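Re-running the complex after MR caught last week's input typo. The corrected sequence lines follow. Everything else is unchanged.
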Amino acid sequence: MPNRRQFIQQMGAASALGLGAKAGLSLAGTGSDTAFNGVPKQFPKTRLRVEGQWPEDLVGNLYRNSPAMLERDGFQHSHLFDGDGMIQRFTLEGGQVYHQAQMVATHKYLAEEEAGRFLYRGLGSSPPNPRSSRNNDTANPANISVRKMGDKLFALWEAGSAYEIDPDTLATYGRVDWSDDLKHLPFSAHPLRDANGDWWNIGSWIYGGQARTIVYQLDAKANLKRVKAIPMQQAGYMHAFALSPRFVILVNTANIYSAGKNYFDSFHFDAKGKSEIILLDKNDLSVFKTIDIPANFVFHFGNAFELGDELCFSMAEYKNADVMSKGLGLGPQSAFAKDATQYNSELNLYRINIKTGRWRKEHSQLSMEFPNIKESQPFKPQSIIGMGRPVSPGSKTDQDYLLSYHPLTAEQEVFDFGKGFTIEEPLFVRSKNGQEYVLHTLANRDTQQTGIALFRAGQLAAGPVSMAWAEEQFPFGFHGCFVGA
Amino acid sequence: MKRLSHTSKTITSMLALLGLACSPLTLAEQSQHQLTLLIKGYEESKGTTYLSLYDDAEHFNKMDGKSVANVQQRINGDTLRITFHDLNAGEYAVSLYHDANNNRELDRNMLGIPSEPYGFSNDAGAFGPAKFNKASFKLEEDKTIVINLR
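Corrected-run output:
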């Protein structure tokens, strides 16, 4: 009986022996910037090759969103954020794993399908002779995340509306207007669930000389309960937020917007400026406190919790915004093409005295992205799981590893698949019998195959308990959710 | 009075009935020209377009009744053609919006941003309401201009 690391090694060898890549996806480690060329409009339902024993009581669907369509009519977008969204679903049932995927039928995607070419500017790159965008949904690719709120599934972007998706067929129902006066306004890709089942989200509006953060509160069935536009002192980039029992926590970064030739070109990182931690009182959505911190950049947060008068929250913190402007591009400066460590974030814990506003930062000295927590316990100090990033200079994205870190105890766990594997966002999932697992997709870059791995929560170092592999590599994705059956 | 036509049909009388008749224009001893507007980009073939033609910055886009002409026209297709006749040579600018739900106003979201299509001559207004000097054009001969809805 092989141990788990041997099991992984055997699995990799088996994959390398017999199975060739179909999708023309050649990314990190190759220096190529032709990622995602030739992606089909859908992947029909296929059964993956199972390795190990998948728990019978772990039944449900892992949904993930991928910026899949990056090339049309000979034009290749040069930034990962510009691919049209594709919803991928990995179905776990009866000890088997199935995959299927479908493009999100956004206004942009349908118009460009009809035209046979890209029509609109992306966030980081622009096709020739682009059409002007009418509103924030004209070029909305719905490509960052997919979340279930209530009984509805939503494909989410960050600068426009949500699109509702059929969780069974993956067909697109259409754009979601939370109310008539919220049409086309930003709704971020990272809604957070409150302890009472409500959902919170933000939308960052930084255009036309205005800087507003729209705060949404939805009920457990995803009906709008409350919304407020909060004026901001600076037009900083905000991708996500944190939520504590008392506060909506914004970090208004020092990556400042001022209209340029495209969205990302419009940002300037003000290294001598400041970022702001803004605490919004959940009771009335008033600004409770604004705390200036040195200029930083952040996409994602761990969870927030309150210890008496102390508010604590984690973030995957960057020293500057190069990761957005260059790191996630697909050119020669990209994290995929060269040394990825220059774009590393550090998982840091901010501790703020709610009364005095005094704050301190505890460094983990660990590079992590795509942090996630057990959403059933949103306000409890707990281990954060994510993609660990290599710190040795020259390391590339195929040297990521699975990482768990507790921000208070500093307890950490690591599992490294070894060179040649790129892991994607890990999630905590729970079986019908209450067993907690960690589930994530990954790619074997050598064989160009996509896989899915399952670990027992709290036992990451022991390696996966089961895996499954496709015969091809599916598009890389950003975020998703697991919906138990 | 100037004459207006929509797809070669005179609609001056209809405008008068709707109380949107053009402001009086003195036909001075100067050259007069025809201006045709091609408005493109209707995604919904329903509702009404409200359009105003201005000849000065002071009243541009103010909706204060001081325009050279106002037009309201129901939509039936993805393009609308409107022709003004007998316009004096000069500098003009156009603003318009597509009232898709026929509530007689330009719907806006909670931040005041239009949530119905709108447009300006020269396709100005990429970053908020256009100014007259960005939307204006000289009319010195018969002319056709295209306005793409935003």
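None of the earlier attempt is carried over here. Confidence is low (pLDDT under 50) at residues 6-28 of chain B. The first strand of chain B starts at residue 3 and ends at 6.
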